[in-house]
Write a structure and sequence with these properties.
zinc; mannitol dehydrogenase; metal-binding; ER; ADH-like_C; 24% helix; 6-stranded parallel β-sheet
Length: 361
């Protein structure tokens, strides 16, 4: 008979979990494993709220098992390391992103692409090697194999660097992989939310000309004056979109709602690349003819491997890139989820775990 989450491991822990498809989160007592020889244990100080957390607590992707403690933008300070840990010591600023395990021997893993391993273990809502459930960062403590721990550079604030562990790497990786990181290139960013606003910052730091493409005309001032975009297109304005035909080397599409691809493909130069990083619940319609006639590419990208994630974090530190955040208390998390559904956040919620998650919650 399986042990309850509270006693299956030796170290008591506290988090906030969803118990059913209502998605309502509330205090949840569980346990973390003892620190193994290659493990890093850290006190969670902040955890970002990703849109995928919302999908998961509501089981909108049909893969949720309850109880579920979300959170894969987790940062804190190391409190214990295993005897064979080489990269970290007590007191280090660290983070854990979307995964905590992989086979480490397949082609993907040996090429530093653990995120594409068929045996990737997600930070929450998955089964760990020992058969127990993984629980995320809406909790007071975290234990992870050091391979999946990221060092947070000293000059980055922990709260606003937390979203980089998911949102940051999600846009950084395709900019690098698809070669959209060359100075002087012209890249479009579709959607100015949690992913999009960070995409603008990374692309500008790479020396790229950036156009924000949004359905909301009122975001123009924010995009250009605050985030530094070079231009702005209203996706529903046919005249604007027509005038911009064939001017972009690539587009990073961060939108997770239904939207037409044909107008975006039209913005690309010959051999331009449209890269999807948003995850709509239903399939999008794909017009093939405009791809064929100009050798354009439609691709996708999902987070990044551990080596690239560390590279991204170091790049962010060098260029002072951090997410624009709203810090909240843990007891505000259900309200935050309601606001997230309405896209009412600028641009990422981050939970102040250390100061608001209390054992008497």
């Amino acid at each position: 008979m399986a042990k309850s989450p509270e006693v299956e491991h030796p170290n008591k822990a506290l988090g906030w979990a969803a118990r059913d498809t209502s998605g309502i989160l509330s205090p949840f007592n569980f346990s973390r494993r003892a620190t193994g020889e290659k493990d890093v244990k850290f006190k969670v100080l902040y955890c970002g709220i990703c849109h995928s957390d919302l999908h998961m607590i509501l089981n909108e992707w049909g893969m949720t098992t309850y109880p579920l403690i979300p959170g894969h933008e987790i940062v804190g300070v190391v409190t214990e390391v295993g005897s064979k840990v080489q990269k970290f010591k007590v007191g280090d600023k660290v983070g854990v992103g979307c995964m905590v395990g992989a086979c480490l021997s397949c082609d993907s893993c040996t090429n530093h692409l653990e995120n594409y391993c068929h045996k990737t273990i997600l930070t929450y809502g998955a089964k760990y090697y020992d058969g127990t459930s993984t629980y995320g960062g809406y909790s007071d403590t975290m234990v992870s194999d050091e391979h999946f721990v990221i060092r947070i550079p000293e000059n980055l604030p922990l709260d606003s660097s937390a979203p980089l562990l998911c949102a940051g790497i999600t846009v950084y990786s395709p900019l690098r992989f698809y070669g959209l990181d060359k100075p002087g290139m012209h890249v479009g960013v579709v959607g100015l939310g949690g992913l999009g606003h960070v995409a603008v910052k990374f692309a500008k730091a790479m020396g790229v000309k950036v156009t924000v493409i949004s359905s909301s005309p009122n975001k123009k001032k924010e995009a250009m004056e605050h985030l530094g975009a070079d231009s702005f297109l209203v996706s529903k304005d046919q005249d604007q979109m027509q005038a911009a035909q064939g001017i972009m080397d690539g587009i990073i599409d961060t939108v997770s709602a239904q939207h037409p691809l044909l107008p975006l493909i039209g913005l690309l130069k010959t051999q331009g690349k449209l890269v999807m990083v948003g995850a709509p619940e239903k399939p999008l319609e794909l017009p093939v003819f405009p791809l064929i006639m100009a050798r354009k590419l439609l691709g996708g990208s999902c987070i990044g491997g551990m080596k690239e994630t560390q590279e991204m974090m170091d790049f962010a530190a060098k260029h002072n890139i951090k997410a624009d955040i709203e810090v909240i208390s843990i007891d505000y998390v259900n309200t935050a989820m309601e606001r997230l559904q309405k896209a009412d956040v600028r641009y990422r919620f981050v939970i102040d775990i250390a100061n608001t998650l209390k054992s008497n919650a």
